[in-house]
Amino acid sequence: MSQTLDHPEVDLREQAGPPAPGASERAAAWLAAFEAALARADADAVAGLFATDSYWRDLIAFTWNITTAEGRGQVAERVRATAERTGARSFATSEPATDAAAPDGRPTVEAWITFETEVGRGKGLLRLVEEDGEDVAWTLLTTLHELKGFEEHQDGRRPRGAEHGAQRDRTSWSERREASLEGWGQDRQPHVLVIGGGQGGIALGARLRQLEVPALVVDAHERPGDQWRGRYKSLCLHDPVWYDHLPYLPFPRNWPVFAPKDKIGDWLEMYVRVMEVDYWGSTRVTSAARDEETGTWEVHLERRHPETGETEDVVLRPTELVLATGMSGKPNVPTFPGAESFRGDQHHSSAHPGPDAYRGKKAVVVGANNSAHDIAAALWEHGAEVTVVQRSSTHIVRSDSLMEVGLGALYSEEALANGVTTEKADLVFASLPYKIMHEFQIPLYQEIERRDRAFYDRLEAAGFWLDFGDDGSGLFMKYLSRGSGYYIDVGASELIADGSVTVVHEPVRELVEDAVVLDDGTSDGKRLPADLVVYATGYGSMNGWAADLISPEVADRVGRVWGLGSDTTKDPGPWEGEQRNMWKPTQQEGLWFHGGNLHQSRHYSLYLSLQLKARYEGLDTPVHELAPVHHTR
Amino acid sequence: MSQTLDHPEVDLREQAGPPAPGASERAAAWLAAFEAALARADADAVAGLFATDSYWRDLIAFTWNITTAEGRGQVAERVRATAERTGARSFATSEPATDAAAPDGRPTVEAWITFETEVGRGKGLLRLVEEDGEDVAWTLLTTLHELKGFEEHQDGRRPRGAEHGAQRDRTSWSERREASLEGWGQDRQPHVLVIGGGQGGIALGARLRQLEVPALVVDAHERPGDQWRGRYKSLCLHDPVWYDHLPYLPFPRNWPVFAPKDKIGDWLEMYVRVMEVDYWGSTRVTSAARDEETGTWEVHLERRHPETGETEDVVLRPTELVLATGMSGKPNVPTFPGAESFRGDQHHSSAHPGPDAYRGKKAVVVGANNSAHDIAAALWEHGAEVTVVQRSSTHIVRSDSLMEVGLGALYSEEALANGVTTEKADLVFASLPYKIMHEFQIPLYQEIERRDRAFYDRLEAAGFWLDFGDDGSGLFMKYLSRGSGYYIDVGASELIADGSVTVVHEPVRELVEDAVVLDDGTSDGKRLPADLVVYATGYGSMNGWAADLISPEVADRVGRVWGLGSDTTKDPGPWEGEQRNMWKPTQQEGLWFHGGNLHQSRHYSLYLSLQLKARYEGLDTPVHELAPVHHTR
After folding, report:
1. B512 has which bridge partners?
2. CB contact under 8 A, B383 and A169
3. Contact indicator for B523, B542 with CB cutoff of 8 Å
4. Whole-Å CA distances, A594 to A205, A586, A607
């Protein structure tokens, strides 16, 4: 398909006016045929309703998985395996369908849909194209958002709260909360133990609470939000507020666009309290082992009690274990010759304490991606002399450009004014097939490159190595495929462009007492005098945590976490079509991974929590298309 | 006017369908005539647009006051005094007008309106009736919701947050918050000092922060929310959630209908943090004196610093002083003969520590209103033997009946589904003239009495003295006129009805060592053995705090706070038409009162904050119809 400037998201916005006649009728006709063919479990008929190049992404509803069927063959397979037991029916549009266009300009009909299954209620998004005179599905997103009989207690079902009527020796709400928090491992076990209490674990914890799944979230930090508070002072969110809301309790209308770290920390701490998430801070997990007989985990933890200050060993036996330790696995720390002789401070970026001790000092930052830039800028602001050792090209996008061009059609005040709620934006995003997402992204990044041409020129003139992803598809694809290799510029790039921060490219040969020595082809090498070396050198796959906490065997069984198999840098094939192991069943029964950015934490916590709830309630959850493992780490 | 079952609020709901033809045209015609007459400052013409019995309530827009003009004469006066300088224009309906009805069945046209003035933007609600073949205003509400040039930073104007771009030696958000909190009285003075950090002070503090008025909220309790935490364990909100939202950050969709006290406490604590309200806990105000020369207050405080634990004397010099100490003034504690000889515990309800120490003990509660019932029920639940001494009749309404019949049309899931947002509900409430509010309320309470007939019969059969207000207008009028004399039943009434808690009526004659002695006409009197006596005997007027903190002269100058002058029990005339001294200018320059229930704290904090902002910015705020003082306490 040729690239154009058309953005389906933009078209959606332009179509906010009265619906084109015919779109709704076309969508309704297709849905009727789809429903009828499904009811007959007629795989070929269903497949015939899809385009040659087509994608059906299902979040739980049919497959109890997160998985994309690409093309008619995979569509037919899915129908054969899942249609009968799913009992999908009552397909309808939930509002008038609209005319839109694909990136290549082909006209599409876009329709928001609702439906139900045997066990739940669904919603989704359908995009039709014409092929050989017929309306066929180009993309279909089906999602389950609620389980019948287990609807969340909101609005008309909100809990009553007060127990009116006098009762002898009643316990109060706060006593019950306290008992809940302290009772884990004593009189009862959490059905779900979430390891990691950052925004991912917290969002999941809130969803599980609303679904009444007994769950506990644990984190090594003392208070919720400390993961943010402990970062260096200039840190703010790089994603704008509309992208960042947590479930149930969106940031208010006067919340800043880019919230400072401590403000986010406060919000997370508050959120845990008012959402009644059971949360143990100051808690380290030391080991977890699966007991196949009982189908539970035995998890050993050390918990420092918030009131007594005593550290106690606790054993918990959850049925489900969720690792929400952050997208980053374990730090990658290169071992350079002579590192032990270096007399200054050296540490991985994750252990960097901030710039306060380094005024007037010389700092060498190895690496040139997000952490490297943040740290370099903070050090410079604090009066250090900073050199960045760039080992490979970096994709740079300015925060404002990302916000306006990259996200604006879906996550902005304008989007809200156009009726694109957070929920709709999340579903639109989810409906874009990973396989062709680059087609949607490339035009955006071409626009960004045009907009910021002068900026990029200055960066390159300063010697910085730039890229826009292997195929020009920019930030989000890099994020999805490898979670690294970019920097959302909030000021550090200017320091590089104007030479305030030096960038060099020679590889590191060794460290000596007071310097980093680069290999510039000479025998002496290039000396960078240094008081501080920061290894902003990235992280391994999240299943590194599984290897440590559980076992290398389980880590290998589950395999690499994150990435699509795009066969781009750091994301080797084969193509997997979905984020490896994220928010869905893994090859290890009872082990799950949660996380991602604030948008993903928010949106995918819904589907993960529903999968956990279904299992908790003993519903049948046959997993279709469980992803095989191609890479162990 | 005869009473009927028609409820204008109910009619509004029934009119949620397509608008009747003509209503919008009629409203538009009236508004055009109104605007033209105002533009000419033609008092008589404006008055002619009002019905014989009519009410024009203005919240700031014309009068820089909160005041109701009743009848054509007062309307004309207002126009003469305010029309020219107000410059009100651009009157329009903001949505189609609807047909409705007054309580007496007269047809009305209801229209939501917007307008602007020289300095601000307004909204309101108009009710037209036909009189002599002409459309005239029966009720008109005009409110100012925003000042031009000082719009709040929300949505498209939300603060950016991050300061992108590197800056040497930047201060972080948390450092700035800290500096703000600690700087009061040192490098700068708060323009507004709010004494009292319950929900009223907190809501006002949040509004002032959003309007960028330098303000500090102080409270004697340690943490925000402690005013709730310290109450006895069974306490929950008696008003349902839809009524209770704070500004900017409504309770989420899964918040309970009646929130337990500790949950509210948590919410308030976090609200202060995320709304960035500068709040000093553990702070007592010892004195405040007005310096007429500088137009500021000199306020002496004792503050126990949260980190050091040291108590320090602080002097602050705010321009504006707001007493938000709660609707209750100082406790009324009766002094009974022999009280000093009583060997058990005795205290006012406000000092009651809760039931924990009284299992198996005998408790006498003097008083039979809200506090008395809460305390009696809590004591009973904890195994005490309780007798209530009822000295006058009490209005009882069951919480569910109040919620459904009393509030449901405006504050409920159903109301929301009908498009009655919190803002609209507040404005509808505000548009009902106090003078005739009883006409709207009486039918509701007749319905409640019918609904709960069996319940009321059982209560009376147990000897309890019931009322429905002097004129049958029930809870809200009692609340507005005297803030007492009722109990929203959440369980205590059942204990009285079934005799678990005894109610007696003889007046207290004296206390002896181990009993309360009632005057039953005999020489011995009626002995109530007691280990505990709780004086649930109410509070004085809020200006009692002013007398203590400032001076009796200032308290007298300002006069009684609260009440309408309805000439009903505890609310002597003459008729004042508005809550005395609440949320509006008082006879003491620079002194203001804020408070009320959660609905009033939320809604009226808007108008109080705008008045304070206007003064802070040096806008001209000529106060029309400043209320004279008829009662000093």
Report:
1. B515
2. yes
3. no
4. 11, 12, 11
Which of the 8 DSSP states describes residue A425?
H
**pLDDT(A9) > 50:** no
Q: Tell me which amino acid residue B142 is.
A: T
- Residue B161 has its nearest CB partner, among A174, A258, A269, at A258
Residue of B212, B254, B455, B496 to mutate, interface with A, max A Cβ within 10 Å: B254
Q: Which residues in chain B are contacts of A383 at CB distance < 8 A?
A: 168-169
The pLDDT value recorded for residue A14 is: 47
**pLDDT > 50? residue A170:** yes
For residue B501, what is the nearest residue in chain A, using CA coordinates? A166
Radius of gyration of chain A (CA): 26
Residue B631 has pLDDT above 90, yes or no: yes
Average pLDDT over residues A72-78: 97
- Residue B397 predicted with pLDDT over 60: yes
Residue of B233, B246, B253, B396 to mutate, testing the A interface (most A Cβ within 10 Å of its Cβ): B253
Q: Nearest chain A Cα to B246, which residue?
A: A252
Exposure letters B247-276 (e unless 16+ CB within 10 A, then b) = bbbbbbbbbbbbbbbbbbbbbbbbbbbbbb
Decide if A376 contacts A563 (C-beta within 8 A).
no
| Stretch among A227-241, A312-326, B94-108 having the lowest mean pLDDT | A227-241
Contact A490 B162 (CB under 8 A): yes
B335, with CB counted inside 10 A (0-12, 13-18, 19+), is exposed
Distance CA B474, CA B460 (A): 17
Cβ-Cβ contacts under 8 Å, B277 against chain A: none
CA of A102, closest CA in chain B: separation in Å?
30
Please list every residue in chain A whose beta carbon sits closer than 8 Å to the beta carbon of residue B229. Answer: 174
Query: How close is the nearest chain A Cα to the Cα of B602, in Å?
Result: 16
Looking at this predicted complex, what is its ipTM?
A: 0.83
**Percentage of residues in chain A with pLDDT exceeding 70?**
96
Shortest CA distance from B207: residue in chain A:
A254
CB burial string B538-576: b at 16+ within 10 A, e below = bbbbbbbbbbbbbeeebbbbbbbbbbbbbebbebeeeeb
pLDDT in tens, B101-146: 998 899 999 999 999 999 999 999 999 999 999 999 999 999 999 9
Looking at the DSSP bridge assignments, the partners of residue B121 are B116, B146
The nearest alpha carbon in chain A to B496 belongs to A166
Structure tokens at A437: 């997402």
- Predicted model pTM: 0.88
Question: Which residue in chain A is spatially nearest to B238 when comparing CA positions?
Answer: A162
**Minimal CA separation from A235 to chain B, in Å:** 8
CB contact under 8 A, B253 and A158: yes
Give the pair of three-digit tokens for residue A207.
């969803």
Strands (E), B506-578: 508-512, 515-518, 526-529, 532-535
Residue-wise pLDDT for B205-239, tens only, equals 999 999 999 999 999 999 999 988 988 777 778 88
The answer to whether B577 touches B435, Cβ cutoff 8 Å, is yes
Q: Across residues A463-480, what is the average pLDDT?
A: 93
| Torsion angles phi and psi, residue A504, rounded to 5 | -125, 160
List CB contacts (< 8 A) between A399 and chain B.
162, 164
For residue A233, list chain B residues with Cβ-Cβ distance below 8 A: 170, 172, 174-175
Compute the nearest-CA separation of A359 from chain B (Å): 10
Contact A233 B266 (CB under 8 A): no
Across chain A, mean pLDDT equals 92
Question: Residue B6's pLDDT band (boundaries 50, 70, 90)?
Answer: very low
Tokens of B507: 């007046």
Tokens 């998890």 label which residue? Answer: A299
